[in-house]
Amino acid sequence: MVGGRRVGMGVCADESVVSVHWASCGVGVCAEDVIVDGGRLGGEQPVDLAGDGINGGGDRMLGAAKQLIGAVVDLLYPRNCQFCRQPLAEQERGVICSTCLEQVKWIKPPCCQRCALPFVGAVSDTFECGYCKDLKLHFQRGVAACLATGIVLESIHHFKYHRRMYFGWHLADWMITAGRERVDWARVDAVVPVPLHPRKKREREFNQAEYLAEAVGKTFQRPVWNRVLRRVRDTPTQTHLDALQRRENLRGAFALRKTAVVRGKRLLLVDDVFTTGATLDACATVLTRAGATEVTVLTVARGAYV
Which of 26, 46, 143, 240 is 20 to 30 A away from residue 108, measured at CA? Predict the structure, then answer.
């Protein structure tokens, strides 16, 4: 469940998402009122826009309101694939068609048990890649659903930076698929999202890791602890930094909230992308130093950094 809705059934309609919709287009719409089956009802607009029987002023206002709502629905929940622009079939959920979804490059074993880097060749046992062996990492396992290329990376950017919330459930579905296959849920007590600095969260108006963590927690029936970690230092962007620079950039950037208790807990740390692992390891360091016995990492995508 995501915000009271099954994963794969459209964007969650909790307050944070509605506020994002308001900021994006100036109109507040509750998705639960207008969205059925991934943004379409029987393959048609989920709102009647025909305007039958419009005669008086009140009817004209009603017709105008319907048109406005229809425009918002078109904006927030498009009926065409957002990559090839072909009409979505009635049975297709979300905003990406089945043909384009075939481009997703899923990560399957064999891959590094720490960073999920795929390995080309025959490996019969779990292994750590050379990159992870050279680092003292504070999480025990890493799972990523797919490679951060093509439509996966574009979907993340649309969701994360442009507030196109309708990409969110695709990301959640990919993450949940990987989590179902490769996470040992008997070893997970709670789900913890990577926090944003308050300034950055105000700018984006939501935290993509919290959105994904809520989807994962509700699907696998684990509590989501949003108020365990906090970002205490607003670090510069890491896009152009190498692995060592990223780790130095994040030194002291995260802290445990005063009310948080993680001692003896086995935690699943959630973020959108694993690139060098610097952000995830910085968070895992705080958690393990506070007494967490085990940290597993789950992300939508694995960046091709190493």
Answer: 240
